[in-house]
Amino acid sequence: MLDLEIVPERSLGCDAWEFVLGMHFSQSVAIIQSQVGTIRGVQVLYSDQNPLSVDLVINMPQDGIRLIFDPVAQRLRVIEIYNMKLVKLRYSGMCFNSPEISPSIEQVEHCFGATHPGLYDSQRHLFALNFRGLSFYFPVDSKFEDMFLFQPGYAHGLGSLQFPNGGSPVVSRSTIYYGSQHQQASSSSPGGVCGAPLPELPLSCYRHQLHLRRCDVLRSATATQGLRLHMFTEGPGRSLSEGGAGRSVCRVVRFGSSAQRVCAALGAPARTYYKADDKMRIHRPTARRRPPPASDYFFNYFTLGLDILFDARTHQVKKFVLHTNYPGHYNFNMYHRCEFELTVQPDKCDTNSLVESRGAVCITAYSKWEVVSRALRVAERPVVLNRASSTNTTNPFGSTFCYGYQDIIFEVMSNNYIASITLYQPEGSRPRYAVNSIA
């Protein structure tokens, strides 16, 4: 049984780890993965068809805890403890919920102090005590209903609510959220709660990494030139424990930039990945006479939602991959969502010998492909992409579909959302020498 400390309006955790309001989904998953054997039977709940309108939820049924994430920002918004019998809870070192201690109204008041008037829902027979950043919900027996309806004395403390021995309501559910007010949602909500505001990313979750606010794709009429990345990170000179604040950073990375220049602008990548050699190369007649070619390599920036591909010979940027991190995709949870904005000028088309000009199309991480393809009039058939971790396993999320347009490759999921965008530099347009301009 987990023994956890509640910090209202902030977190739920212990000395080794904690779930902090505002932390990214991937950081919460990393905590759970580090506690294999302690936290078991974890479920991820999401809407396949409406991933932006329904909360993203991590459910831990064996511990009675549910983590509810904002579906757009993918950061932790509400922590819900929906089965109090499966977990021990403390506040400021004082245990108020355990197999030996029942979380009754009197116990909650003793531990947390008096509160403003509670709220009683006569339809659900549910009494709620709300503190700043923390709420407790008590199911009320019908024989005590009049006590809550007609005795408002608990407005200045709960002492006026007199229950017979063993008759005091016990907490059935509690929630930790940001702010002073919390709205209870309908039972159809995946987490059963909504309305809580979303805090900023906590400084404790920065972890000396750059995090992306916005990515502007720099383009000429029909070609990509580079990316302008608006980021934030920890402020210089002061540690987080000393109250250091975050600071904003803006960098431009272009095609042809060297690996050293990219590292100077964005820092060291989280991982470097080398592309696999062509497996059919061994069947070529010249395979035995020629040394194996060097492999192109990626710089993976997971918190930016970005991959950068470098040419093995020149070590210059030749491709960008922007990830949208939608649940149901093969790479989900590897990257943070890249908040990009890509403006594409459609190709001019000849209709009955008349050249038709169309307006620019703005594409973001939240655009649906059916809208984008209609505006760009993409007519070609897609390439079907089916990923698998090995030759003996299949991808449970199904195939994605890749569409090419100008110097862009759109990877589209079956629900019509864009999974990733690849921006590449055509072979004929690459400069012979490095372009090291980084603003």
Automatic annotation (TrEMBL):
One of its GO terms (cellular component) is trans-Golgi network. One of its GO terms (biological process) is Golgi to plasma membrane protein transport. InterPro entries: PHAF1, PHAF1/BROMI. It holds the Pfam family PHAF1. Belongs to the PHAF1 family. This is Uncharacterized protein. It comes from Spodoptera littoralis (Egyptian cotton leafworm). The lineage of its organism: Eukaryota, Metazoa, Ecdysozoa, Arthropoda, Hexapoda.
